[in-house]
Amino acid sequence: MSRPAHGVDPVGDARVVAVLDHAAQLINPALDLVAADPLGLKARTFGRDPNLGWDAGISDWSFADLIEHHRLLEHLRDLAARLLDAACVPGTAAWARADRRSRAHWWVRRAGGWGAVVVAAPGVLGPLAKRLPLQDLLAVANQALMLVAVAREFGVTDRGVQVEMLAAVLFRREIDQREIVPVHALPIARDDVAVPARPFPTLRTVWATSRAVRAIPDELDKRPRPAAVYRWLGHLPLMGALADYAGERGAAVAAGESGRRWIEENTGAELVPEPAVRAP
């Protein structure tokens, strides 16, 4: 197990494992909710021609169709389904056709980019935001969510392995979590409310995970960080938010690539067969 050079480890692997285990416990059910289809919109994407554009059929609407509430509702649901499919949202037909690398790329580029907006938001305050650890907490939480999502696409669903990956990528610690017991006996900042089936479950999970990560503040600077130029520009009022967003997107891509390499080198996940495409 790794230790910081020159001195005693002030945090300890056991505490890092406890925090990351709790984070993974929050993140996995939230990712399940992302793929859920409570309104049945994603199921609709399996019954149409994928070559049709999202606006196909709109020109054929008649005035009589528009004044019929049920018919109009069906058209709107079809339109929403096409938009979801065009965005390749998990659970759609486009997602089912994608291979694991494309799915992992989606989590890094799109989901990681959405999370970067949340991370960058405090940057409108300029230097004031840099005095607080909020951005680092949110950034670590966003990267953790993205990394667990990538791991799941490569067939890595064991929470212990996910914890080892998060420790290696986010905090540069080589940990065998099986050697650290009991993990749950350690006091950490917890969010005892399970992730509910509400809108934007990933945003709620980023916030809940950031609360857990507060237990290891000395580790935050080890995460994949934005380039120096973006960190410098981030001190400027208003413009700081834009610089932070660009920088955090780059950091998310770097974290995603590090996570993919760790998975391939430590789990043999490339040998996992591709999932079969099937309609729900």
Overview of this structure, please?
This protein has 280 residues and is mainly alpha-helical. 57% of the residues lie in helices and 0% in strands. It has twelve helices and no strands. Helix 6 runs antiparallel to helix 8 (134-153), helix 6 (100-120) packs antiparallel against helix 12 (239-267) and helix 9 (159-171) packs across helix 12 (239-267). The longest helix is centred in the last third of the chain and has 29 residues, at 239-267. The N and C termini lie far apart (44 Å).
- Provide the β-strand percentage band: under 5%
Biggest sheet: strands, sense, closure? none
Overall body shape: globular
Total helical elements: 12
Give the C-alpha Rg: 21 Å
- Low-confidence sequence ranges: 49-58, 183-199, 276-280
Q: What is the succession of H and E elements? A: HHHHHHHHHHHH
Q: Percent of residues in helical segments? A: 55-70%
Average pLDDT reading: 79
E-strand count? 0
Q: Structural class per helix/strand content?
A: mainly alpha
Which key features would you list for this structure?
280 residues; 12 helices; 0% strand
In short:
The protein is mostly helical and about 280 residues long.
